[in-house]
Design a protein that fits this description.
It is a single chain. 60% of the residues lie in helices and 0% in strands. The longest helix has 27 residues, at 94-120. It has 193 residues and is mainly alpha-helical. It contains eight helices and no strands. The radius of gyration is 22 Å and the shape is flat.
């Protein structure tokens, strides 16, 4: 694309690993931070998660890179900064916020990896879920797995069914983020005088 021979890149970087690190950080530059914070950490992190998932789908080669081991580049640090801003109002210590970002980022990567693997195998996620449900129903019918039977029989209430209309990724990430974050503090009323 730039009209240079591949080997000439090594005039600017020392190793292939360094080149790949720079490429990965360039991809982190695709995150958009233009929308203002909603003040709701789950909603703000979900917006970042959706962008991250789309990024992996555009650049599936990122999944071939180790998730850890390299120091973050400037665009990855910008992502961390924006994720921390989303967590600014959460009642978490600094280390707990960083841990939350790591866990949240890992789930986004894992979710995208599963989707991309299914696509590469020619599977549709909805069809796969239907096949899995049918398979588990057959196993449950044998009567040897009472907890599986109970889980399959437990149908969502009307309110839960409305949540299930959310795309699976959004629903799963909302549940995970809600579980990672402490409940929002309600302001303590001022004492009467």
């Amino acid at each position: 694309a730039i009209g240079a021979a591949p080997a000439s890149l090594y005039r600017y970087v020392a190793t292939r690993d360094e080149l790949v690190e720079l490429m990965a950080d360039q991809v982190y530059g695709e995150f958009s931070y233009h929308e203002p914070s909603s003040g709701r950490p789950v909603a703000d992190l979900l917006r970042l998660a959706q962008q991250g998932r789309a990024m992996y789908h555009r650049h599936p080669w990122l999944l071939d890179l180790p998730a850890t081991g390299n120091l973050p580049g400037p665009n990855a640090v910008a992502f961390i900064e924006h994720a921390l801003a989303a967590l600014a109002g959460a009642d978490l210590t600094g280390p707990a916020k960083l841990e939350t970002i790591g866990l949240f980022s890992g789930v986004v990567r894992l979710f995208a990896q599963a989707e991309i693997s299914q696509q590469r195998a020619g599977q549709d996620t909805t069809q796969w879920q239907g096949s899995l449900a049918g398979y588990l129903a057959q196993i449950a019918a044998a009567g040897q797995h009472p907890h599986l039977v109970a889980a399959l029989a437990d149908q969502p209430s009307h309110g839960d069914a409305a949540q299930r209309q959310q795309p699976l990724f959004d629903h799963a990430m909302t549940r995970i983020l809600t579980g990672l974050l402490p409940p929002a503090r309600t302001p303590t009323p001022a004492p009467r005088q």
